[in-house]
Structures are given as C-alpha cells and as structure tokens.
C-alpha cells in the first residue's frame, strides 16, 4: 500500500521523536556504566565529564568487592532474592491451589480476608509492633516474613489453577499419590509460566528491599545492598558516620563518584541477567487472569 506524503512525514517525525526519547532515556545508564569503568586518574583530570574513557579499569569494582561491608550487603540481598523468592512462591502457590479447590472448607471466608488486604492497609505502626513482638527486629527474616505472599498474586495464581483439569489430580490419587504429591508432582510442573512470572516479580521486590530495612534493621552490618547504595549516593558525609557506606568510602584513592557508579551497576546487573532465562515463560505468565475468548 503506497503511503501519502503526510503519512511519510508523520512516520519520520515519529522515528525522530522516539529516537530522541531513547537517547535521553539511555544516556544516564550509559554514563553510569562508563564512569564506573573509568580510570580514577583520568576521572580526576577531566573533572568527571567523560563520555568515552581512554583507559578502562576495574579498580572501582575491585575496591567495592574487597570491602566487607559491600560483601555483606551483596550476600544479604542475594539471600533475600533467592530464599525469599523460593519461600514466597511455595506459600503463594500452596494458598492459591487450596483456594482453587471447592472441597476446601471455609475458602470463601479466606478469599474475603485476602480481598480485605487489597482494600485496606494497616499503615506502619501495626506491622512494626508485630515484628517487634515476634523478636525479628534486626533479623534478616523481618524482610521476608511480612511479605511472604501477596493477595493480588494469590488471586491471579488461583485463576491459573482453576484452569487445570481436576481429572489429572483424580488420576494421580487413584495411582496412590497424596495431596502433597499431587501438588508438587502434577500441579507445580504444569504451572511453570505462572511460577516464572511471579518468581521474577518476587525476586525484583526482594532484591530492591529498602524501606523495610530502614524500619526493621538497625545494625548496618545487616543492611541490604539497596540501603547501602542509598547512603553512598545521597549522604557522602557518612564517611565519618560509622556506617557501611563509610567503611567503603573512607581511606581510598578512588574517586567517590566512580565508586557510586560501580555500586549502581552491581545492584542493577543481576536482575537484568535474570530476564533472558525467564523470557519464554514470562510472556505466558503475564497473561494470567486476562480475558480469554
């Protein structure tokens, strides 16, 4: 179909505008990446205005990864993203599976309680008092237990389990399988798209844990990566404050800015690397609960 002159002008303008938007969006990411690999002496000489360094170096990364504070923060964030995601998937899938089966007694009441959590929020004080009474203040588990599951994810996963034929479970029971066996051997393998999608959501949320750590973690040695990164990016005065950021930024000959940029890259790359492995399941998983016709 032949395009008119107006259509060509419109398409050209669209390409130009979108290209400009893409440049504006990607340039900060490019700048962070470049500065993190810039030689400290070159960065100081050019006073930070670098678009393409003459000498690439890993000095900032080596220094960050050699500090105990950054190692602890990376380990804690990795623990939250792996263990927290695994536990959240098990709890969410088990709850959603139970609610999807009509033989569960009181499932309407449970669903009502879940819906209430979506409509009303308790605020900050009740959760803090609960965590305090459970003795989880300054514990890594205070960043996992309160957010083990999400009412919205439970409802979406329940709609996925509703589509699994009950005959599959009945045949497994006839063959001698227990309810737990049916769940782990039949239901979960059939739910890989849903598990991949929600696993990615949970992993990103756990990896980016910040506000919960501010509320419940007082010991800087137990801070997750995002909280340490926040102190590095915003509060450079922490060099004298006895914090995790102070330990990393004190007594070093590497510019503070290159350390900040390296920390941002380290905090961002792991989650970006997860997407390609889950891509084939993610497209199906995000369609959960959609209108089918």
TrEMBL record:
Domain ABC transmembrane type-1: 74-278
Family matches, as CDD domains: TM_PBP2
Superkingdom: Bacteria
PROSITE patterns for this protein: ABC_TM1
Parts of the chain that traverse the membrane: 12-33, 75-97, 109-128, 140-161, 182-207, 258-278
UniProt keyword terms in alphabetical order: Cell membrane, Membrane, Transmembrane, Transmembrane helix, Transport
InterPro entries noted in UniProt: MetI-like, MetI-like_sf
Protein name: Carbohydrate ABC transporter permease
Family per record: Belongs to the binding-protein-dependent transport system permease family.
Pfam families: BPD_transp_1
Cellular component per GO, a single term: plasma membrane
